[in-house]
Amino acid sequence: MSDAERKPLSVVSKLCYGLGGMAVDMFWTVLGAYTNIFLVEVAQLPPLFGTSVVFGGRAMDAVFNFIVGPLIDKTDSRWGKIKPWILGSGLLLLPIYILVWYVPGVGREGKLAWYILLYIVLMFAKTALSISSRALVAFLSPDSQDRDSATVYRGLFVLLGIVTGLAIHGQIVALYDKVGFDPCDNSTNSNNNTNSTVDSTSLAELKAGYLISAGVLAGMTLLCILGLVTGTTERRDISKTSQQDHDQPLVSTIWAVMTFRPNVFLLLICFSVALPLSILLGASVLYVQYGLHLPDQVQNAMLVLMVSAVVSILPMGKVVARFGKRIPFICYQLALIPATLALLFLPVRSLAPLFVVSVFLGWSGAAAFFIPWAMLNDVVDAYSLQAGRRMDTVFFSVALSVQSLTTTLGLGLTTIALEIGGYQTGACVQPDSVGTSLGILVSVFPAAFSLLAVWLIWMYPITEDRKKEIKEGLENRNTPDKADPIRTMSETLAAKDQQMSSLSDVTYKTTSCYEKPCVFHGCDKTDIIFTLQL
Fold it and tell me: CA 43 to CA 50: how far, in whole Å?
């Protein structure tokens, strides 16, 4: 094993790899939380148009995941396989992200076309950046422990990106939001129409606030991307193992990945784990407002949840390093079940119990931010051992497609819950049934899927013992001399031949025999022993 292979991955490299998670989730969280509000209240599009843009963008995200992964896998440039995609997609994404928050001076149909076009390009750039920055971990080190440790840092920075993005955007937009609009104030809303109460000056200031926030977040994203590119080293010796079968059809490649048995279990685990998180991060905001009647504490409750998750990531990483992935993951998922069910029984307008439950939700839910991705590294190694080549980017792209699916499904379930509860658009007071339906959604559904995830994790075929076998198999395959003693003996005898030229006939005879393993034509045992003694 070479010195480069023995050298552990430095903390600086792990931190810089983590910056990739912050770069993606910092702006992606803001898009998910504020796009609908911006399109309806600032861009003044009809709600149906805004919903079409959001769901259309999510759908394109899932499609691009299947396309971009194989494209990255086929890349082979002088700058590496992954880093050209990170830098190229990042530079494309930044100006598009700023333009998404710009309101063009055209009619409704023109605005709809503008945002649909921008969202298509944005989803392509976001998908390329997300896949390449995540898959980079496979090309940083051949050691699975190093990759798992780097994945923990990535999970930490993902959570930091979520908190940072929401905090920066919320604070900047609040500074420029001079309207102070209250839809239940009849003096300012005689027509019960939000857009009619916003004068042109206040609306222009609000538009400026969104653009300034976009510029700040774009600048921070650029710094994270530059840190990721300059602070990590892509191992070309690892990427060489994925430079085969470039002519394999795209559909065949994706099918091979999706039908690989350990990956089937992992994708089901990702779905069962990500859907509760998607519901909690989306519908819980509405539940706190309409179910617990604490609209002024929504941001504080989300902040407590995210801070709890951030604090728990590093200790959780140490637990996983000590006890493996499966058992701790099962424990954290089991802990999530009572925490989600507790939401349904919280007393109305009671702040302290809400904060306590938020702490437990953040602590138990944080496992989903890095353990599935660490398990994916093991799946890629298992596939590499079986198939003889690595397809890291394809595996990551398929996993991200499942994540996009769960996010879209979470939005859809929230909409259905509001519809079942009898939500009245524009109404000042919502019926109690809205809070009840949202309470069931944020408690029963996450608990049920978490229980399903526990069973799937238990059935997951790559145990710690199997992981050790895979690691040994890959090491033996990468060091053929260890597995081929005949070849080693032949090279030793050839070297002896050069040193002992006076006995060249005997040595040549013996070496020739060893070049044909297990076939000793013309050699007897005495010749071989005599040569070895020399």
Answer: 9
Q: For the beta carbon of residue 192, count every other beta carbon within 10 angstroms.
A: 13
Q: Residue 140: CB partners within 8 Å, gap ≥ 6?
A: 9, 13, 17, 146, 147, 150, 232, 233, 234, 235
pLDDT band of residue 493 (cuts 50, 70, 90) is very low
Q: What is the dihedral of CA 404, 450, 410, 100, to 10 degrees?
A: -50
Q: Please give the structure tokens belonging to residue 239.
A: 């990427």
- The answer to whether 70 touches 250, Cβ cutoff 8 Å, is yes
As a whole number of angstroms, the distance between CA 116 and CA 111 comes to 8
Residue-wise pLDDT tens digits, 246-263: 566 777 878 888 889 999
Coil, helix or strand at residue 76: coil
pLDDT at position 276 over 50:
yes
CB-based contact 379:265 (threshold 8 Å)? no
Take residue 34 and report the two structure tokens written for it. 């504020």
Residue 78 main-chain phi, psi, to 5 deg = -70, -20
Give, rounded to a whole angstrom, the gap between the first and last alpha carbons of the chain.
29
d(CA 154, CA 300): 25
For residue range 117-158, what is the model confidence (pLDDT) as tens digits?
Answer: 999 999 999 999 998 888 888 888 888 788 888 888 888 898
Q: What value, to the nearest 5°, has the Cα angle with vertex 45 and ends 221 and 26?
A: 15
**In whole angstroms, how far apart are CA 481 and each of 239, 240, 488, 497?**
21, 19, 6, 20
Indicate yes or no: pTM above 0.90.
no
**Looking at per-residue confidence, does 181 or 57 come out higher?**
57
Predicted pLDDT of residue 485: 45
Alpha-carbon distance 138 to 70, whole Å?
A: 15
Given the structure tokens 């930091």, which residue do they identify?
160
Sole residue written with tokens 């959001």: 54
Cβ pair 76, 243 in contact under 8 A:
yes
CA–CA separation, 104 and 43 (whole Å): 8
* Pairwise CA distance, residues 162 & 22, whole Å: 8
